[in-house]
Amino acid sequence: MFxxxxxxxxxxxxxxxxxxxxxKRVSLKExxxxxxxPVAFTAKIxxxxxxxxxxxxxxxxxxGFEIAKKDISSIKLSQIVNAIDGDSIYNGCGLGLHVxxxxxxxxxxxQFKTIRNxxxxxxxxxxxxxxxxxxxxxxSFLKL
Amino acid sequence: MFxxxxxxxxxxxxxxxxxxxxxKRVSLKExxxxxxxPVAFTAKIxxxxxxxxxxxxxxxxxxGFEIAKKDISSIKLSQIVNAIDGDSIYNGCGLGLHVxxxxxxxxxxxQFKTIRNxxxxxxxxxxxxxxxxxxxxxxSFLKL
DNA sequence: GTTATTTCGGATAAAAATATCCTATTTATA
DNA sequence: TATAAATAGGATATTTTTATCCGAAATAAC
Lengths: 144, 144
Known about the structure:
By secondary structure, chain A is mainly alpha-helical. Helices cover 53% and strands 4% of the residues of chain A.
């Protein structure tokens, strides 16, 4: 559904959020370990999220990644997916047609519209706080 | 959402179905032209669908691809997607966890479950006949 | 039978996604 | 100020996906 890069980006964001919630900044190394992702590749993705101002970074000793506490609940999954994979998952045509709308629909246009809209709604209505709290309480997991 | 290969496979199957409906067998070249796909790559995908017994092929002059008329309405999109991309789109974890179930859910497990189930239902309940008829009547399109 | 047409299948190429490596820069602490 | 720790970013490597090429096999028509 999503690219590997996007999966890592989502997991990393959730992990950072769950720590920022406690005022803890986390390092690249720690993140990669906790979400079970390749370190250097994860670095690229985090840089991308920083550039998109979804997370913030602090260089140097005792540096790392964090999310301002007040922002955790307002960051939606859609922002992360959009920054990494773009919006084609829920805005593009299911069969890859360049033009596909009500006037010139692909064969599965109607069938996909429902699903794509639901996916979009879900991503736009799920924020990092909800997910981070479940991680903190041990209800959900970021690896294995 | 789907791989290019899968998109081509779906479009090709729909095109073949719409012609088989009229008893017309179609060639690789014609298919690739009508669905706007690379010829040789499409050949590989069609071979794959033949091996999976979703479509059938006839070698030699006046040969081509076809679907037995009686089968058109019983072939589901899920069979085509499954043959080409596997079932990870609607059975795999949204964040790529190897293990992800009710007992050990990823952070977005519940949110994704709904969508993946809907996608699965849609693919399992949409058959080639419905889609082929829309193509024949000019209600939907396979390219542009 | 010969020929033209067409799918089949193996080998190869090109492009994109994933992953690694190394150096530069920044920053806290000793 | 020197050192260690950490992100930033460029270059490169590997793997997967997408795409092309070519000869073999099959088949209908002549």
